[in-house]
Design brief:
Helices cover 27% and strands 37% of the residues. A hairpin with a 2-residue loop joins strand 2 and strand 3. Helix 1 packs across helix 2. The longest helix has 22 residues.
């Protein structure tokens, strides 16, 4: 799907720039810092008609899920991104991937209702899930102890062909190793 590939490439470019410029310059020291810098890189990388929502709420069967970043386009959610900042630890991903799998399994008919304050009135903008939605886990972390080539999403068939991972593996000395898996 062209839109998924396009979005993935823009997200990966922004991730690489985030790590190579801001992380390496010491400007990221927390997950919220990573989120802020990545948002700015995305804003520069994506056309202005793509919306970027930070920590919107999704309610699925009474469970509230709050992704780190959501990308929208033409009234649809086209990407859901979860970020992790653990430069001195192993990556944690199970809860994030489980939440993305839940969104993927319910995507038909699921809507994200984003409330924002405009003046003194509340405005709600509603987005449906795109059939070509992309789910991304992106993390800064130490190398995995028992690293393999399997995707974090391997046990979730609903994420097949729509999930990717962006990694920045920190090293004791030197620059992080940046790679992605899909």
């Amino acid at each position: 799907m062209k839109i998924r590939r396009y979005i993935k490439n823009r997200l990966l470019d922004a991730w690489t720039d985030t790590i190579e410029s801001d992380y390496m310059a010491g400007r990221i020291n927390s997950e919220h810092g990573l989120q802020a810098v990545y948002y700015c890189k995305l804003r520069k990388s994506l056309p202005m008609d793509r919306g970027i929502l930070v920590e919107p709420s999704l309610n699925i069967n009474g469970q509230t899920i709050i992704p780190d970043i959501v990308i929208t386009w033409k009234g649809r959610v086209v990407a859901v991104i979860e970020l992790k900042y653990k430069p001195k630890g192993s990556p944690t991903f199970k809860k994030d991937v489980r939440n993305m799998a839940l969104i993927a399994s319910q995507r038909e008919g699921l809507r994200l209702d984003h409330q924002r304050l405009v003046g003194v009135e509340n405005l709600t903008v509603s987005y449906e899930m795109s059939p070509s939605i992309l789910f991304v886990w992106a993390g800064i972390h130490r190398p995995e102890r028992n690293q393999s080539d399997w995707l974090y999403s391997a046990e979730y068939p609903e994420l097949a062909d729509c999930f990717t991972e962006f990694h920045a593996e920190t090293q004791p000395h030197g620059t992080p190793s940046i790679y992605h898996r899909y």
